[in-house]
Fold this sequence. Notes:
By secondary structure, this protein is of the alpha/beta class. It folds into 3 domains: 1-35 and 160-178 and 203-306, TIM Barrel, CATH 3.20.20; 328-571, 3-Layer(aba) Sandwich (Rossmann fold), CATH 3.40.50; 582-711, Sandwich (Immunoglobulin-like). A hairpin with a 2-residue loop joins β6 (209-210) and β7 (213-214). The two termini are 21 Å apart.
Amino acid sequence: MSEQTKKYAKELVAQMTAEEKTSQMLYQSPAIERLGIPAYNWWNEALHGVARAGVATMFPQAIGLAASFDRELINKIADVISTEGRAKFNAFSKRGDHDIYKGLTFWAPNINIFRDPRWGRGHETFGEDPYLTAELGIAYIKGLQGEDADHVKAAACAKHYAVHSGPEAIRHEFDAKVSRHDLYDTYLYAFRRCVKEARVEAVMGAYNRVNGEPACGSRTLLIDILREEWGFEGHVVSDCWAIKDFHEKHHVTGNATESAAMAVNNGCDLNCGSVFLYLNQALEQGLVSEEKITAAVERLLEVRIRLGMLKSYPSPYADISYEKVECKEHVALSVEAARRSIVLLKNKDNILPLDRNKYKTIAVIGPNANSRNGLIGNYTGTSSRYITPLEGIQQCAGEDTKVLYAEGCSLYKERTESLAKKKDRFEEAFVTAEMSDIVVLCLGLDATIEGEEGDAGNEYASGDKLGLSLPGLQQELIEKVAAAGKPVIVMLLAGSAIDLSETDPVTDAVLDIWYPGARGGLAAAEALFGTFSPNGRLPVTFYKGTKNLPDFCDYSMKNRTYRYTDQHILYPFGYGLSYTEIVYKDAVINTKSCDISEDTALTVTVMNKGKYPVYESVQTYIKYVNKREYDPDYQLKNIVSVFLQPGEEKSVLIVLKANDFALISEDGSCEIRPGDYMIAVGGQQPDKKSEELTGKKAAIFCITKKERRKLSVTD
Length: 715
């Protein structure tokens, strides 16, 4: 950011009274007309499209986008979202509409680590891996903010900082206890890179405490690490009404005045909530200095200047027209994103894609078959059109194919009609299956039962999942329908890992389509009929139940995610099948031994031997051979998305920097250790389960690092 905007912000703030300054630290900031500062509401959402302010292009939920393993795709999507956000802001502002959800400060992306599959908000994230989360988070932030730091297209916000991933029911009073190793190895990695590499404009604190300190008032997180270690220059916003929790839930302060002072003194600049109304009292009582308040307001005003909200510093994006909102090109990208997100988990005897000549009557059954909620996830806008899986199949099946439909059951209730008997739609489902040649079962969840505390309708766990099985009568529905003796294809609409081990004996194929966006049912149908080949990869591990998982409240990474466990795995992180055959060959590494200053380069040839064009996700993993008990196993350190036409082959260059070999010590320090490192490259993890499911192995090399190198926490 330029010195010009900093100077301008300082000059404006210097003319404010103390009361005017504190008024600008609330998310509903009033106008200061004598200084030419318009009213502004900071709260806006853009997790996978501009949310909560009317029509916008709705992309797949974040977890689905992560399944693409593609930075460029994520960057394009974020650029579209910021274009639509600008178009809406420009139109609304001209009409004097400065309401909530109509600004340019987007509280996205969510870069928390999806450490436990029971967490209801995990579908807002980019998955369980710190590297993948960082890469996609950086791409998203850069897409939202644009390339000109002095004229920001929109302001992104990395949330929820930090060590935050449930349980939802107790998030307001919960204290996440975390070791220094896990803090720096897992929970802070993506935040650090989003700050240092993407220069994210804002960071949002979490509701919970972290090792005793409330995250929105933590000196350790907000000052020692964020500002001093990482050099963060943007602003910090509280999660909504989180500062109220200081005195009401965490009991670290006595009242709202003390809470407001604690937050500001420890680095929080903007309050989503109302506790900062007490800042004037805190100032009068000497609990906070005016210098602290001034510094916070300067940071807040400086980003508003660069966003072009003051007439004397106009934005080059001020002329983006409302015609861009949900335009043809944006909608096309949303459908393409849905295609890229689909993961083919199972395909027995290559039953997919469906042979149109063989299957003339298709039964589409299940609670998510014709559900709009099953498309959209949470933090969503309004689409002008929705295409459910049923509608997509009807559209793609062709005139000679008959499509039958039955709801089968509710997502989680025992009946669909309140006065009916239990399982009231089971017989209809069976009859429909019996009349068909093949069954497509659309099952899973939606954001009304996995989501955020206060939003999700899950009365049992405040949005979290009690287990990993399909809820309600869905497993019984599968068995009922399978009894008709027809092939069964499962389309899974969910934002998290589901234990499908009980369904395996009676299903022939499984397509995980996540929450695929407003028109995602079209992409699902196209995958079913082979218009394209699905080639997504799992950004999370699918487990067989929860018996090997630690307690939900335990924030140790031991026995969590692919980096720290290989037990009870149903489908591994990084896994996904395809309709085409991808061959890896001629893998070569440039060295067997190197010092810390040298890059390690690998080349591998990737060939498409099948009939479908695909985006292949080339994955590179590194493992330290002599790892200590708390070190991770193989961990992802490079991704390359390669587009291949049928018969085409490409040579892929993979460059691993010294930092890619770094490991976190028990005390949180970072270093590259001398010794042997295993490097694996392929279309999957180098694990036994992936080999078993795909029949393929990754190419593995061993190199030796000859020296030790301590790394700064700012590296």
